[in-house]
Amino acid sequence: MPQPILPSRPLAAMARGVGAVQRRFGESLRTRVAGDDAAERGEQIWGKPGERWFSPEDPIWRVHEDASMFVGGIAALLLQSLHPSAMAGVAGHSGYRSDPWGRLKRTADYIAYTTYATIPDAEAVIAKVRTVHARVRGKDEADRPYRASDPHLLTWVHVAEIESFLTAYQAYGGGRLTPEEADTYVAQTGVAAALLGVPDPPTTVAALGATISRYRPELELTRAARDAADFLIASPPLPWATRPGYYTLVAGAIAILPRWARDQLDLPLDRLATLAGRPLGRFGAGAVRWGLAGVQDGRRSAPPAV
User: Fold this and answer.
1) Confidence band of 18 (pLDDT split at 50, 70, 90)
2) 283 CB-near residues (< 8 Å, 6+ apart)
3) Which of 44, 125, 161, 277 shows the greatest Cβ crowding within 10 Å of its Cβ?
4) Residues 41, 111: contact at Cβ < 8 Å?
5) pTM value?
């Protein structure tokens, strides 16, 4: 009887080494985005029994758990920055330069809780953000007053974000949404947005695009927007050794921005994104996906409501 062929010791050792690298890479990514206590908070978000707005089969769950969110998040920040009042609020109150990882963690928490957590926990996070928004106000570069709680500004931030997340998923995601699923995704993101203060969140891709188009006359490249783009692209808060990988995500993000937004932003990597942005974006998202696959967080196994 023939003996089974067993993997050689060198191959087994290599596999263990690759697995260790994958785990370290995934843990590093997760820590950067979600903080040192990501595993504990993940148990609270995904492991806690209770009724949820969405399930693992829903489009919003599939989009927001995908590595393409790393690309979509960069695109969203660039697109959002074109509204002068919204950008003034970010520049004046968010601490994105002094504490960029803290701001990223807060954003990631909000998305995670409102997508995956129990309904009471999601509503509590939304109420907390509304409280913060109530204190954020000021004037933009043209001396126009703004309030973070202004429904008009909240709508812009929401639609620019959802447009970027959806486009990134369709370009770089591990799957693709059908047109019907894409409409469902847009509608599902409106659940939290409405509670946050967006008066009439779009519920279809067509309505999403129409809403963005209505804002175009208000958009401009302010000094604050230029500074934000410079921070994201030219001087990100990352070690030099990690920047080449980060720039694959940036190139992918620029490539999926609307052409009019790219022209208005006048970005330094625009030519690279035009030539190779989508292949680089796919490579970068794929690398992130590989790393995160080595980190178990329970996203696919949320307990049923009890």
Assistant:
1) very low
2) 248
3) 277
4) no
5) 0.87
Is 248 part of any domain?
Answer: yes
CA distance 234 to 243: 10
Which residues form the domain of 126? Answer: 33-294
Asked, for residue 13, whether it belongs to a domain, the answer is no
- Tell me, what DSSP letter sits at residue 269? T
- Looking at residue 306, what is its pLDDT? 46
CA distances (Å), 31 to each of 28, 96, 145, in order? 5, 17, 37
SS3 280: helix
Give Cβ neighbours of residue 228 (< 8 Å, ≥ 6 apart).
Answer: 77, 78, 81, 87, 90, 91, 96
Residue 6 belongs to a domain: no
Whole-angstrom Cα distance, residue 284 to residue 15?
22
pLDDT, greater one: 68 or 300: 68
Residue whose entry in the numeric block shows the structure tokens 């699923």:
181
Residues of 234-252 as b/e, b for ≥16 C-beta within 10 angstroms? eebeeeeeeeeebbbbbbb
Question: What letters, b where the CB count within 10 A reaches 16 and e where it falls short, cover 77-91?
Answer: bbbbbbbbbbbbbbb
Q: Which two tokens stand for residue 100?
A: 């960029």
Is the pLDDT confidence value at 304 over 60?
no
Specify if 24 maps to a domain: no
How confident is the model over 133-139, as a mean pLDDT? 94
Amino acid identity at 266:
D
| Burial class, 198, CB count within 10 angstroms (exposed 0-12 / middle 13-18 / buried 19+) | buried
Residues 171/286, Cβ–Cβ less than 8 Å:
no
pLDDT digits (tens, 9 = 90+) for 242-285: 889 999 999 999 999 999 999 999 887 788 888 899 999 999 99
When pLDDT is averaged across residues 13-37 and rounded to a whole number, the result is 55
How many domains is the chain built from? 1
